[in-house]
C-alpha cells in the first residue's frame, strides 16, 4: 500500500512538471495591451525568443480593448478582423504557443490596430531557438483563458535556418502557466497521501 501511494504521488508530481515548463510573456511587459501608443509591439516581440510550450498573456481593460487572432499577414497588416481565428475579451487572456509559426494578434476595435495595437508572435521549435540567456523574465500573474471563439491557426512554420534575435528576458528556468486545475489535482493527491 505504501508503494502504491508513493508511486501515485511521484506520478502526480511528474505530471505537474510536464505541463509547467515554458516561459510566460506578458505582451507589452508592464504597459500591457494598449492602443495608447506608448508601446511598439514589433520592438517588444523582436526581443523575445518564443518557443513551443511558452505562453503569452494579454492584459488590458476589457471595456476598452480586445484581442483578435487573425490568420494571415495581409489581415494583420491591413488590421482586418472580419474573419478572426479567435477573439479574446476577458482582459487577462493567456494563449499557449502550441506549434511553430507566425501568429498574428490585433485589437479588433476601430482605430486601435491602426494606432499600433498589433503583434506578430514568431514561435520556434525548441530545437530552433538560440540558447537561453541567464537573466530571468519578470514574473507574470496567472492568466485566464476566457475567449469567445478559438480555432487552431494554420500559420506557416519558419525554416530551421531562420534565426530569432537573442532575448535578454528568456529564462531557462521553468515558469508556471495556467495549469491551476492540474495543480489542484496534485494538491488533492498530496493531501490524500498524507491522510
Automatic annotation (TrEMBL):
InterPro entries: Cupredoxin, Phytocyanin-like, Phytocyanin_dom. One of its GO terms (cellular component) is plasma membrane. This is PREDICTED: mavicyanin. The keyword Cell cycle does not apply. Residues 126-137, 153-178 have a biased composition (Low complexity). Residues 23-125 form the Phytocyanin domain. Residues 126-178 are annotated as: Disordered. One of its GO terms (molecular function) is metal ion binding. PROSITE patterns: PHYTOCYANIN. Residues 1-22 form the signal peptide. Keywords: Copper, Electron transport, Glycoprotein, Metal-binding, Signal, Transport. The keyword Transport applies. It holds the Pfam family Cu_bind_like.
Amino acid at each position: 500500500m505504501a508503494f502504491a501511494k508513493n508511486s501515485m504521488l511521484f506520478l502526480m508530481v511528474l505530471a505537474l512538471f510536464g505541463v509547467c515548463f515554458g516561459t510566460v510573456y506578458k505582451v507589452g511587459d508592464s504597459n500591457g495591451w494598449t492602443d495608447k501608443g506608448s508601446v511598439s509591439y514589433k520592438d517588444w516581440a523582436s526581443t523575445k525568443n518564443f518557443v513551443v510550450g511558452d505562453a503569452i498573456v494579454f492584459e488590458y481593460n476589457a471595456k476598452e480593448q480586445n484581442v483578435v487572432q487573425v490568420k494571415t499577414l495581409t489581415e494583420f497588416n491591413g488590421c482586418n478582423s472580419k474573419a478572426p481565428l479567435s477573439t479574446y475579451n476577458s482582459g487577462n487572456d493567456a494563449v499557449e504557443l502550441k506549434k511553430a509559426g507566425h501568429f498574428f494578434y490585433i485589437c479588433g476595435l476601430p482605430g486601435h490596430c491602426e494606432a499600433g495595437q498589433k503583434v506578430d508572435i514568431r514561435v520556434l521549435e525548441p530545437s530552433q531557438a538560440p540558447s537561453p540567456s541567464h537573466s530571468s523574465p519578470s514574473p507574470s500573474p496567472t492568466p485566464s483563458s476566457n475567449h469567445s471563439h478559438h480555432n487552431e491557426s494554420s500559420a506557416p512554420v519558419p525554416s530551421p535556418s531562420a534565426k530569432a534575435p537573442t532575448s535578454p528576458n528568456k529564462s531557462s528556468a521553468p515558469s508556471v502557466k495556467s495549469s491551476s486545475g492540474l495543480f489542484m489535482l496534485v494538491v488533492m493527491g498530496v493531501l490524500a497521501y498524507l491522510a
